[in-house]
Amino acid sequence: LDSGFYSSRWLRATEAEKRYLVAIARSGTDTPRTAALAEALGSNPQSMAPHRDSCIRKGLIWSPARGLVAFTVPGMADFIRRQPNAPVI
Asked: Which of 19, 61, 68, 89 shows the smallest number of beta carbons within 10 Å?
């Protein structure tokens, strides 16, 4: 799964999107609050909205409720945490 299923999704993400995905993976919850992600990235929710929206359009994440995000595929957070070249946040 790492070499095809997960990596194909990871490779579609830009560097800015990867930072957002890393923040989700390291949040400690399956459905982190977008405000908490922005804070972890040293930003505000409004400036992170374009990255969130592009990740949703690419099918990498979804929003199960207002202000929350989650990965679209199970195990994606674990895959991202295993990536040695993942952006540092």
From this structure: 89
